[in-house]
Design brief:
single chain; mainly beta; beta-galactosidase, domain 2; eight-stranded antiparallel beta sheet; four-stranded mixed beta sheet; 4 helices; binds 2-acetamido-2-deoxy-beta-D-glucopyranose; Beta-galactosidase domain-containing protein; BetaGal_dom3_sf; Gly_Hdrlase_35_cat; GH; signal
Protein backbone atom coordinates (compact mmCIF):
# COMPACT_ATOMS: atom_id res chain seq x y z
CA UNK A 1 0.00 0.00 0.00
CA UNK A 2 1.37 3.33 -0.99
CA UNK A 3 1.26 6.04 1.57
CA UNK A 4 1.04 9.47 0.09
CA UNK A 5 2.58 11.83 2.49
CA UNK A 6 4.09 15.21 2.88
CA UNK A 7 7.30 15.48 4.78
CA UNK A 8 7.29 18.83 6.37
CA UNK A 9 8.84 19.89 9.58
CA UNK A 10 7.37 22.88 11.24
CA UNK A 11 9.92 25.35 12.34
CA UNK A 12 7.49 28.07 13.04
CA UNK A 13 6.06 28.65 16.43
CA UNK A 14 3.80 25.70 16.99
CA UNK A 15 1.65 25.51 20.07
CA UNK A 16 1.40 22.12 21.61
CA UNK A 17 -2.19 21.15 22.10
CA UNK A 18 -2.45 18.40 24.67
CA UNK A 19 -2.22 15.26 22.61
CA UNK A 20 1.07 13.72 21.67
CA UNK A 21 2.65 15.52 18.78
CA UNK A 22 4.17 12.37 17.44
CA UNK A 23 4.49 8.70 18.02
CA UNK A 24 7.17 6.36 16.94
CA UNK A 25 6.91 2.66 16.41
CA UNK A 26 10.53 1.78 16.26
CA UNK A 27 11.78 -0.10 19.26
CA UNK A 28 10.60 -0.21 22.83
CA UNK A 29 13.14 2.25 24.08
CA UNK A 30 14.03 4.33 21.18
CA UNK A 31 16.17 7.05 22.56
CA UNK A 32 18.26 6.36 25.60
CA UNK A 33 20.81 8.87 26.66
CA UNK A 34 22.74 9.23 29.86
CA UNK A 35 20.20 11.10 31.82
CA UNK A 36 16.89 9.88 30.61
CA UNK A 37 15.17 7.42 28.47
CA UNK A 38 12.22 7.96 26.32
CA UNK A 39 9.83 5.22 25.45
CA UNK A 40 8.06 6.06 22.29
CA UNK A 41 6.62 2.84 21.00
CA UNK A 42 3.28 3.85 19.64
CA UNK A 43 2.54 5.83 22.78
CA UNK A 44 2.39 9.50 23.51
CA UNK A 45 5.81 10.89 24.15
CA UNK A 46 5.98 11.29 27.89
CA UNK A 47 7.78 13.59 30.25
CA UNK A 48 10.94 12.08 31.52
CA UNK A 49 11.33 11.80 35.26
CA UNK A 50 14.93 12.80 35.27
CA UNK A 51 13.98 16.22 34.06
CA UNK A 52 11.20 16.66 36.56
CA UNK A 53 13.40 15.88 39.53
CA UNK A 54 15.85 18.41 38.25
CA UNK A 55 13.03 20.93 38.31
CA UNK A 56 13.29 21.49 34.66
CA UNK A 57 9.80 22.26 33.58
CA UNK A 58 9.24 20.82 30.19
CA UNK A 59 7.46 22.82 27.63
CA UNK A 60 5.75 19.82 26.18
CA UNK A 61 5.05 16.13 26.51
CA UNK A 62 8.51 14.87 25.77
CA UNK A 63 12.04 15.80 26.48
CA UNK A 64 11.72 19.14 24.89
CA UNK A 65 14.83 20.36 26.55
CA UNK A 66 16.49 18.59 23.71
CA UNK A 67 13.75 18.82 21.14
CA UNK A 68 12.16 22.16 21.99
CA UNK A 69 12.89 24.14 25.15
CA UNK A 70 12.77 23.73 28.95
CA UNK A 71 13.19 25.96 31.96
CA UNK A 72 14.79 25.35 35.36
CA UNK A 73 12.43 27.08 37.80
CA UNK A 74 14.76 26.68 40.78
CA UNK A 75 17.62 28.46 39.17
CA UNK A 76 18.25 32.14 39.49
CA UNK A 77 18.57 32.19 35.78
CA UNK A 78 16.17 30.03 33.99
CA UNK A 79 18.74 28.66 31.64
CA UNK A 80 19.58 25.99 34.21
CA UNK A 81 18.66 23.21 31.86
CA UNK A 82 21.14 24.36 29.29
CA UNK A 83 23.92 22.21 30.70
CA UNK A 84 21.97 19.11 29.79
CA UNK A 85 21.41 20.15 26.21
CA UNK A 86 22.63 17.53 23.87
CA UNK A 87 22.95 18.86 20.36
CA UNK A 88 23.26 15.43 18.81
CA UNK A 89 19.75 14.74 19.98
CA UNK A 90 18.23 17.10 17.45
CA UNK A 91 19.72 15.21 14.54
CA UNK A 92 19.19 11.70 15.85
CA UNK A 93 15.63 12.38 16.93
CA UNK A 94 14.58 14.00 13.68
CA UNK A 95 16.24 11.47 11.41
CA UNK A 96 14.72 8.63 13.42
CA UNK A 97 11.37 10.27 12.85
CA UNK A 98 11.93 10.36 9.12
CA UNK A 99 13.06 6.73 9.14
CA UNK A 100 9.98 5.75 11.14
CA UNK A 101 7.76 7.33 8.52
CA UNK A 102 6.67 10.24 10.65
CA UNK A 103 5.62 12.91 8.23
CA UNK A 104 4.76 15.89 10.32
CA UNK A 105 6.43 17.17 13.41
CA UNK A 106 5.59 20.15 15.57
CA UNK A 107 8.45 21.38 17.71
CA UNK A 108 7.64 23.44 20.76
CA UNK A 109 9.46 25.81 21.11
CA UNK A 110 11.79 26.69 18.34
CA UNK A 111 12.05 30.42 18.81
CA UNK A 112 12.36 32.21 22.13
CA UNK A 113 9.83 34.98 21.82
CA UNK A 114 9.59 37.46 24.66
CA UNK A 115 7.28 39.51 26.79
CA UNK A 116 10.18 41.73 27.78
CA UNK A 117 10.82 40.48 31.28
CA UNK A 118 7.26 40.22 32.50
CA UNK A 119 6.36 37.32 34.70
CA UNK A 120 3.79 34.77 33.69
CA UNK A 121 2.77 32.16 36.25
CA UNK A 122 6.01 31.31 38.06
CA UNK A 123 8.65 32.36 35.67
CA UNK A 124 9.84 35.18 33.54
CA UNK A 125 7.98 34.48 30.40
CA UNK A 126 10.62 33.85 27.87
CA UNK A 127 10.54 31.06 25.38
CA UNK A 128 14.27 31.32 24.98
CA UNK A 129 15.31 28.68 27.50
CA UNK A 130 17.16 25.98 25.64
CA UNK A 131 15.19 26.64 22.49
CA UNK A 132 16.99 26.45 19.19
CA UNK A 133 16.83 30.16 18.61
CA UNK A 134 17.23 32.17 21.76
CA UNK A 135 15.32 35.26 22.64
CA UNK A 136 18.54 37.16 22.13
CA UNK A 137 18.72 35.99 18.54
CA UNK A 138 21.49 33.47 19.17
CA UNK A 139 21.15 30.41 16.99
CA UNK A 140 22.20 27.46 19.09
CA UNK A 141 24.01 24.52 17.57
CA UNK A 142 20.81 22.61 18.18
CA UNK A 143 19.10 24.83 15.65
CA UNK A 144 21.89 24.32 13.17
CA UNK A 145 21.43 20.57 13.47
CA UNK A 146 17.66 20.72 13.25
CA UNK A 147 17.70 23.15 10.35
CA UNK A 148 19.26 20.44 8.19
CA UNK A 149 16.25 18.26 8.59
CA UNK A 150 13.96 21.04 7.46
CA UNK A 151 16.12 21.94 4.48
CA UNK A 152 16.44 18.34 3.42
CA UNK A 153 12.83 17.30 4.02
CA UNK A 154 11.32 20.32 2.28
CA UNK A 155 13.35 19.95 -0.90
CA UNK A 156 13.37 16.15 -1.16
CA UNK A 157 10.20 15.64 -3.16
CA UNK A 158 11.04 11.93 -3.50
CA UNK A 159 10.53 11.68 0.24
CA UNK A 160 6.95 12.92 0.00
CA UNK A 161 5.77 9.51 -1.11
CA UNK A 162 7.60 6.49 0.24
CA UNK A 163 6.96 2.99 1.44
CA UNK A 164 8.91 1.33 4.21
CA UNK A 165 10.81 -1.28 2.25
CA UNK A 166 12.33 -2.74 5.35
CA UNK A 167 14.20 -2.10 8.53
CA UNK A 168 16.56 -3.86 10.88
CA UNK A 169 20.21 -4.48 11.55
CA UNK A 170 21.09 -6.45 8.42
CA UNK A 171 21.65 -3.58 5.97
CA UNK A 172 25.18 -2.91 7.07
CA UNK A 173 28.15 -5.04 7.91
CA UNK A 174 27.64 -4.07 11.55
CA UNK A 175 24.69 -5.57 13.41
CA UNK A 176 24.80 -2.78 15.95
CA UNK A 177 23.48 -0.35 13.34
CA UNK A 178 19.75 -0.12 12.80
CA UNK A 179 18.58 0.98 9.36
CA UNK A 180 15.22 1.93 7.94
CA UNK A 181 14.81 1.81 4.19
CA UNK A 182 12.18 4.01 2.62
CA UNK A 183 11.58 3.81 -1.10
CA UNK A 184 9.60 6.02 -3.43
CA UNK A 185 7.52 3.60 -5.54
CA UNK A 186 7.40 5.98 -8.51
CA UNK A 187 11.03 7.04 -8.77
CA UNK A 188 12.74 4.20 -6.83
CA UNK A 189 14.63 6.80 -4.81
CA UNK A 190 15.88 5.18 -1.61
CA UNK A 191 16.34 6.72 1.83
CA UNK A 192 18.52 4.73 4.20
CA UNK A 193 18.19 6.20 7.70
CA UNK A 194 20.75 4.70 10.04
CA UNK A 195 21.48 5.03 13.72
CA UNK A 196 23.22 2.88 16.32
CA UNK A 197 20.86 0.24 17.70
CA UNK A 198 22.00 1.33 21.16
CA UNK A 199 21.28 5.01 21.01
CA UNK A 200 23.32 5.77 24.11
CA UNK A 201 26.58 4.62 22.57
CA UNK A 202 29.34 7.09 21.93
CA UNK A 203 31.50 4.62 20.02
CA UNK A 204 32.38 5.45 16.43
CA UNK A 205 31.21 2.79 14.02
CA UNK A 206 32.55 2.28 10.50
CA UNK A 207 30.85 -0.17 8.25
CA UNK A 208 29.77 -0.98 4.73
CA UNK A 209 26.21 -0.16 3.80
CA UNK A 210 24.35 -2.29 1.26
CA UNK A 211 22.18 -0.30 -1.08
CA UNK A 212 19.61 -1.31 -3.65
CA UNK A 213 19.94 1.01 -6.62
CA UNK A 214 18.77 1.14 -10.21
CA UNK A 215 22.23 -0.25 -11.07
CA UNK A 216 21.68 -3.22 -8.77
CA UNK A 217 23.12 -3.90 -5.35
CA UNK A 218 25.96 -1.62 -4.34
CA UNK A 219 27.94 -1.75 -1.16
CA UNK A 220 29.55 1.44 -0.02
CA UNK A 221 32.44 1.01 2.37
CA UNK A 222 33.51 3.22 5.24
CA UNK A 223 30.22 4.75 6.22
CA UNK A 224 30.81 6.27 9.60
CA UNK A 225 28.58 7.10 12.53
CA UNK A 226 30.23 9.04 15.31
CA UNK A 227 28.43 7.63 18.32
CA UNK A 228 25.22 9.56 18.79
CA UNK A 229 24.69 10.23 15.19
CA UNK A 230 22.16 9.33 12.59
CA UNK A 231 22.50 9.63 8.84
CA UNK A 232 20.25 9.43 5.84
CA UNK A 233 22.01 8.01 2.79
CA UNK A 234 20.25 8.49 -0.53
CA UNK A 235 20.05 6.43 -3.68
CA UNK A 236 18.64 7.35 -7.10
CA UNK A 237 18.03 10.80 -5.78
CA UNK A 238 16.79 13.40 -8.18
CA UNK A 239 17.89 17.00 -7.83
CA UNK A 240 16.58 19.24 -10.56
CA UNK A 241 17.24 17.50 -13.88
CA UNK A 242 20.08 15.45 -12.46
CA UNK A 243 20.11 12.23 -10.52
CA UNK A 244 22.84 10.64 -8.51
CA UNK A 245 22.99 6.94 -7.89
CA UNK A 246 24.16 7.30 -4.32
CA UNK A 247 26.10 9.62 -2.13
CA UNK A 248 27.77 8.64 1.08
CA UNK A 249 27.60 12.27 2.17
CA UNK A 250 24.25 13.49 3.40
CA UNK A 251 22.40 16.06 1.37
CA UNK A 252 21.58 19.40 2.93
CA UNK A 253 19.73 20.86 -0.01
CA UNK A 254 19.75 21.39 -3.73
CA UNK A 255 18.69 24.11 -6.10
CA UNK A 256 17.62 24.14 -9.71
CA UNK A 257 18.99 27.37 -11.12
CA UNK A 258 20.73 27.84 -14.46
CA UNK A 259 22.49 24.64 -13.42
CA UNK A 260 21.49 21.99 -10.93
CA UNK A 261 23.21 22.71 -7.66
CA UNK A 262 23.62 19.97 -5.09
CA UNK A 263 24.74 20.70 -1.54
CA UNK A 264 25.93 17.54 0.18
CA UNK A 265 27.57 17.94 3.53
CA UNK A 266 29.64 15.98 5.93
CA UNK A 267 27.89 15.39 9.19
CA UNK A 268 30.83 13.84 10.99
CA UNK A 269 34.09 15.59 11.69
CA UNK A 270 35.98 14.32 8.69
CA UNK A 271 35.84 11.28 6.54
CA UNK A 272 35.89 10.67 2.84
CA UNK A 273 32.62 10.97 1.05
CA UNK A 274 31.89 9.29 -2.21
CA UNK A 275 29.44 10.18 -4.87
CA UNK A 276 28.59 7.93 -7.76
CA UNK A 277 26.93 9.68 -10.62
CA UNK A 278 25.29 8.82 -13.88
CA UNK A 279 27.40 8.53 -17.02
CA UNK A 280 27.06 12.11 -18.21
CA UNK A 281 29.49 13.13 -15.56
CA UNK A 282 32.95 13.65 -16.86
CA UNK A 283 35.77 12.76 -14.56
CA UNK A 284 37.16 9.99 -12.44
CA UNK A 285 37.40 6.27 -12.71
CA UNK A 286 34.68 4.41 -14.43
CA UNK A 287 33.46 1.22 -12.84
CA UNK A 288 30.79 -1.14 -13.99
CA UNK A 289 28.17 1.05 -12.36
CA UNK A 290 29.09 4.25 -14.13
CA UNK A 291 31.44 6.92 -12.97
CA UNK A 292 32.41 7.20 -9.38
CA UNK A 293 33.93 10.13 -7.62
CA UNK A 294 35.78 10.18 -4.42
CA UNK A 295 36.06 13.50 -2.69
CA UNK A 296 37.98 13.98 0.48
CA UNK A 297 36.64 17.03 2.11
CA UNK A 298 38.72 19.32 4.24
CA UNK A 299 37.42 22.01 6.54
CA UNK A 300 36.18 24.21 3.78
CA UNK A 301 33.71 24.60 0.99
CA UNK A 302 34.66 22.87 -2.24
CA UNK A 303 32.85 23.39 -5.51
CA UNK A 304 32.87 20.66 -8.14
CA UNK A 305 31.48 21.55 -11.55
CA UNK A 306 30.62 18.77 -13.93
CA UNK A 307 30.69 19.48 -17.61
CA UNK A 308 27.06 18.53 -18.11
CA UNK A 309 25.10 20.30 -15.47
CA UNK A 310 25.48 19.70 -11.79
CA UNK A 311 27.45 22.03 -9.63
CA UNK A 312 28.23 20.44 -6.31
CA UNK A 313 29.11 22.38 -3.19
CA UNK A 314 30.76 20.14 -0.66
CA UNK A 315 30.57 21.45 2.85
CA UNK A 316 32.35 20.29 5.94
CA UNK A 317 30.27 19.87 9.05
CA UNK A 318 30.77 23.27 10.64
CA UNK A 319 30.38 25.18 7.39
CA UNK A 320 27.23 23.19 6.76
CA UNK A 321 25.86 24.25 10.13
CA UNK A 322 25.89 27.79 8.79
CA UNK A 323 24.34 26.92 5.48
CA UNK A 324 20.93 28.46 4.88
CA UNK A 325 18.54 28.34 1.97
CA UNK A 326 16.17 31.26 2.46
CA UNK A 327 13.20 31.05 0.10
CA UNK A 328 12.36 33.76 -2.38
CA UNK A 329 8.69 32.89 -2.08
CA UNK A 330 6.31 32.95 0.83
CA UNK A 331 4.46 29.88 -0.43
CA UNK A 332 5.39 26.58 1.09
CA UNK A 333 6.58 24.25 -0.25
CA UNK A 334 9.62 25.92 -1.71
CA UNK A 335 10.51 24.83 -5.23
CA UNK A 336 14.18 24.16 -6.04
CA UNK A 337 14.39 27.36 -8.07
CA UNK A 338 12.87 29.43 -5.30
CA UNK A 339 15.61 29.65 -2.74
CA UNK A 340 19.06 31.15 -2.40
CA UNK A 341 22.03 29.32 -0.93
CA UNK A 342 23.80 31.33 1.73
CA UNK A 343 26.65 30.47 4.07
CA UNK A 344 26.26 32.31 7.43
CA UNK A 345 28.07 32.87 9.77
CA UNK A 346 25.08 34.61 11.33
CA UNK A 347 21.53 33.47 11.39
CA UNK A 348 20.20 34.16 7.91
CA UNK A 349 16.58 35.21 8.04
CA UNK A 350 15.82 36.21 4.53
CA UNK A 351 17.37 36.80 1.16
CA UNK A 352 16.17 38.30 -2.07
CA UNK A 353 17.51 39.45 -5.37
CA UNK A 354 17.26 43.13 -6.16
CA UNK A 355 18.61 44.22 -9.50
CA UNK A 356 22.14 42.89 -9.67
CA UNK A 357 22.57 42.32 -5.99
CA UNK A 358 21.48 39.77 -3.47
CA UNK A 359 20.19 41.26 -0.24
CA UNK A 360 20.68 39.07 2.79
CA UNK A 361 18.96 39.78 6.08
CA UNK A 362 20.47 38.18 9.15
CA UNK A 363 20.91 38.50 12.85
CA UNK A 364 23.50 37.55 15.39
CA UNK A 365 23.42 36.57 19.00
CA UNK A 366 23.15 40.17 20.15
CA UNK A 367 20.33 41.13 17.90
CA UNK A 368 16.96 39.56 18.32
CA UNK A 369 15.46 38.53 15.04
C1 LIG B 1 9.75 -2.35 10.19
O1 LIG B 1 8.99 -2.64 9.04
C2 LIG B 1 7.76 -3.31 9.28
C3 LIG B 1 7.16 -3.66 7.94
O2 LIG B 1 6.98 -2.50 7.18
C4 LIG B 1 6.86 -2.42 10.11
O3 LIG B 1 5.66 -3.08 10.40
C5 LIG B 1 7.57 -2.08 11.40
O4 LIG B 1 6.80 -1.16 12.14
C6 LIG B 1 8.92 -1.47 11.09
N1 LIG B 1 9.65 -1.27 12.33
C7 LIG B 1 10.12 -0.12 12.69
C8 LIG B 1 10.88 -0.16 13.96
O5 LIG B 1 9.99 0.93 12.05
C1 LIG C 1 15.74 21.15 -16.74
O1 LIG C 1 14.91 20.64 -17.72
C2 LIG C 1 13.97 21.57 -18.21
C3 LIG C 1 13.05 20.86 -19.17
O2 LIG C 1 13.79 20.10 -20.09
C4 LIG C 1 14.72 22.75 -18.85
O3 LIG C 1 13.81 23.70 -19.31
C5 LIG C 1 15.63 23.36 -17.84
O4 LIG C 1 16.41 24.36 -18.41
C6 LIG C 1 16.55 22.32 -17.23
N1 LIG C 1 17.30 22.92 -16.13
C7 LIG C 1 18.58 22.70 -15.93
C8 LIG C 1 19.19 23.37 -14.77
O5 LIG C 1 19.26 21.97 -16.64
Amino acid sequence: MVASIISTLFFALVTWSGAASGTDNRKTTDVTWDKYSLSIIGKPLLCCLARITRKCVLSGPTDYNNVGGAVDIDAVFYDGCESSLSIEFAAVYSKNDIGSHITMLGIYMTFGGTNWGHVAALVCASYGYTTMLRETGEARDKMKQTKFIGLFACISTDLFKTEMEGNGTSYTGNNKIFTWVLRNPDTDAGFYAMAPEDTSTRATAKFALNLKTSYGQISIPDVQLDGRQSKIILTDYQFGNSTFLYSSAEVASYANLDVDVLVPCLTEESSPSRTLGSSDLTISSSGKNGLSYLCTQGECIAAVKFSSSPLIYLLDKHTAWNFFAPPTTSNPPVAPNEHISVIGPCLVRNAYVQGDSVEIVGGDQNHAP
